[in-house]
Amino acid sequence: MIELINVAKTYKSAAGDFTAIRNINLTIEDGDVFGIIGLSGAGKSTLVRCINLLEVPTEGEVIFDGQSMTKLSKKELLTARQKIGMIFQGFNLLSQRTALGNILYPLEIAGMPKAKATKRAMELLDLVGLADKAKSYPSQLSGGQKQRVAIARALATDPKVLLCDEATSALDPTTTVQILDLLAEINRKLGVTIVVITHEMRVVEKICNRVAVIDSSEIVEEGPVSEVFKHPKTAIARKLIMPQSGEGIESVLGSRCIRITFNGSETEEPMVSNMTLACRAAVNIVFANTRTLDGKAHGQMVLQLPEDDSAQARVLDYLRMRNISFTEEVETK
Amino acid sequence: MTWEQIFPLLGQGVIDTLVVTLVSTLIAYLIGAPIGVILYGTAKGSLFPNKPVNAVLGVIVNVLRSIPFIILLVLTQPVAKAIVGTKLGNQAFIVYLVIAAAPFVARMIESSLREVDGGVIEAAQAMGSSNMQIILKVLIPEAKPSLLVGSAIAVTTILGYTPMTYLVSGGGLGQLAIQYGLYRSQEEIMYLSSLLLIVLVQIMQETISAVAKRTDKRIRN
User: What is the ipTM of this complex?
Assistant: First the structure.
């Protein structure tokens, strides 16, 4: 379990103080895949570095595995860090070492005998699907392969937590999905708690069970992914979930509107057409932003309901019957 | 002078030049390398930031580097006297060369280490590496190609100073070129000595560059 209590980080400089994060209170349970989402500059990278103390918080406490990280001695901190793996946007592999050599590095630091370390490193290469690339140098690997090596390296010392700092942001969509699948598998198989820092909702959607939204140095929303995704409370959460939403609805306010959220339902069926036919009621699509990921629909749609009360009821019943979640759209901002 | 006399003279010149160059380079690295690492590590935002140490070392290095070699040679004669017991000869000259080259080596090593990607160092820190482990297992191996290129520059620059052994009655190719070419008008020795100096520089430069290139794993092969 990771607990951040009132954590803040302020950088002092001649030009004035800069607060990267403040009032951060978070609890990440064992086995969680915890997403921290925010726009660039929101403070998410600083936040994740406060967990392994790459950034020392100026206020508050970080508790990992029952011990207060901020109170550890220098040596204890180095040992504690071996239990917190980390991967990065830029992979950060040692360019002069092979894939195998990179995975051996943390084991050398931990003082594992060479033979045992090599065996362990080969197992890890196998786990990330790169057993045949042991002797390749990073320059000979693709981005996705480099991140796989980085993941294997981060897992070498059997960490309880894996911190992922924009780990898929430098990868193409297909590779991103593969890396996320691997992370999910690691979480499932090895029980490693994963903390994911990202600016992309699709990453959170795909693998996280909980999410915190960070905006202007503070956490503004936190909860189970399905909850935050379906009912974003803050404007920033809405913006992150559906980057183009919230525009053009003003003109139809006054009539009753509902916001439908697709969170992984099947897309085979033309939902809106079927509904209008079944309910014999016309609806106006005020706004829609949906996309299909792995055959599942994700996104949101705002529908203007018919004036007639009974037609409205039929539409709402139809949605309930189909288990499609919706919320009353009262205001947009 | 006959060729039978000239060849041994040039042979001894090559040996003297090589010994002075290589011994000076070696000692300059033994002294300069740790200073380079400290300059890197004590810099702001680096591994073990320490403003006073960084500033003092920086000033010493800059002062020594800004004094022209020929003046440094005169100024540091007591140092040579104290270390090797004489102000003259190749041994004393090595002392002068080391004093001139070590600060240069330190700056070059510092700059090679700075080229190492900060993300890689951060990753090593995240894995629980101590500063010493980062220096030995991350910084130096990662900077190796650049360090090698730097050593080629250092060794050829040091070789470029060796003719000044002439000023302290030392020997070497440069001394031969000056003595025979300038003062005795035996130009064939001057030209041959100069040619040999050029060949030596070429060999050193090319050998080290080739090793740097061949061992750099960032290059796909």
Answer: 0.88
CB A94 to CB B142 under 8 A?
Answer: yes
Test the B interface: residue of A50, A81, A91, A95 with most B CBs within 10 Å? A95
Q: Which of A52, A94, A161, A169 to probe the B interface (max B CBs under 10 A)?
A: A94
Closest Cα in chain B to A154? B127
Number of domains in chain B: 1
The answer to whether the beta carbons of residues A259 and A329 sit under 8 Å apart is: yes
In which element (H, E) is residue B39 found? helix B3-41
pTM for the model stands at: 0.80
Q: Chain A residues with CB inside 8 Å of B124's CB?
A: 105
User: What superfamily does domain A2-239 belong to in CATH?
Assistant: P-loop containing nucleotide triphosphate hydrolases (3.40.50.300)
Q: Is residue B95 part of a domain?
A: yes
With beta carbons under 8 A apart, name residues in chain A contacting B138. Answer: 94
Residue A167 Cα, gap to closest chain B Cα (Å): 13
Considering only CB atoms, A88 lies closest to which of B119, B133, B218, namely: B119
Q: Does A197 touch chain B (CB under 8 A)?
A: no
Contacts of A121 (CB under 8 A, 6+ apart): A100, A103, A104, A107, A134, A152, A156
The CA distance from A196 to A117, in Å, is 28
**In a 3-state reduction of DSSP, which class is residue A193?**
strand
Instruction: Measure CB to CB from residue A96 to each of B130, B133, B144 and give the nearest one.
Output: B144
* H/E run at residue B29: helix B3-41
Contacts of B203 (CB under 8 A, 6+ apart): none
Task: Measure Cα distances from A94 to A54, A86, A103, B175 in Å.
Answer: 19, 14, 10, 46
- d(C-alpha B205, C-alpha B153), whole Å: 7
- pLDDT, averaged per 10 consecutive residues of chain A (333 residues), comes to 94 88 94 93 92 94 93 94 96 97 97 96 96 96 96 96 95 94 95 94 91 93 89 84 53 66 71 81 81 74 81 84 79 44
CATH of A243-329, one of 3.30.70.260, 3.40.50.300, 3.40.50.11270, 3.40.50.880: 3.30.70.260
Sorted by sequence, the CB contacts under 8 Å of residue A270 that are 6+ apart come out as: none
B129 to chain A: which residues are within 8 Å by CB?
78, 109
A157 close to B (CB below 8 A): yes
Quickly tell me which residue has 């550890």 as its tokens: A72
Measured between beta carbons, the chain A residues lying within 8 angstroms of B125 are 54, 81
Tokens of A183: 């992370």
